[in-house]
Automatic annotation (TrEMBL):
Keywords: Autophagy, Mitochondrion, Transit peptide. The keyword Aminoacyl-tRNA synthetase does not apply. The gene is NIPSNAP1. It comes from Anabas testudineus (Climbing perch). This is NIPSNAP domain-containing protein. Its main location: mitochondrion. The lineage of its organism: Eukaryota, Metazoa, Chordata, Craniata, Vertebrata. Belongs to the NipSnap family.
Amino acid sequence: GLEYPLRFSESSDKGWFRSLFVHKVDARKDAHSNLLSKKETSNLYKIQFHNIKPECLEAYNSLEAEVQKRLHQDQDYPCEVVGSWNTWYGEQDQSVHLWRYTGGYPALTECLQKLNNNKEYLEFRKERAKMLISRRNQLLLEFSFWNEPLPRPGPNIYEMRTYYLKPGTMIEWGNHWARAIKYRQENNEAVGGFFSQIGDLYVVHHLWAYENLQTREETRNSAWQKEGWDANVYYTVPLIRSMESRIMIPTKISPLQ
């Protein structure tokens, strides 16, 4: 046994001993939405997840495409379709739509008010409701260090990787991915990165484009050959509560093909 009992004075207890267990964090002076989002734009994004009755998928796609085309082209509505997909692997019989509102929350409010007074759109919603099992959405901002999601030609498959983070870790996530993204841009696969503001919180969506599943595998494997990628994965994994991957096929009218 020990010849002398091990004792800690009150001062030492508040010193190195407590430092083993207390992780000191500098006080933040701003919301993570202001620290991580693009400053040069005031875009707000909405992502929609529609779970569709399997027998209605074709009819749903036709109806949704017609309405999306009208809203996308109508200059009176400050919104546009960024991308529209049907899931292939992951959750089945699901459609995913990503919208951009140019002008942030005021643009979103303007669109909602106009649509609520649009009889044609209200009829569309009634018809669409008959085809759905469930639906949910989130309002998103885009990470400042990610690519701007611009229209691209196809054919491509898209992967949406969704990360549910531990509350309080968004800034740390952003710091690591601001460095990590450079390892994933060589093959033009990085489409866009977003984080939630309303809906499920502390959610991150990374959107990637690949020629096919084999190209996806090769592109992802090549990242591990680059010095520094492994460190970013090592430091971000502990921030995640859960994650999921969707492989998606663009609809015919999606700007992201």
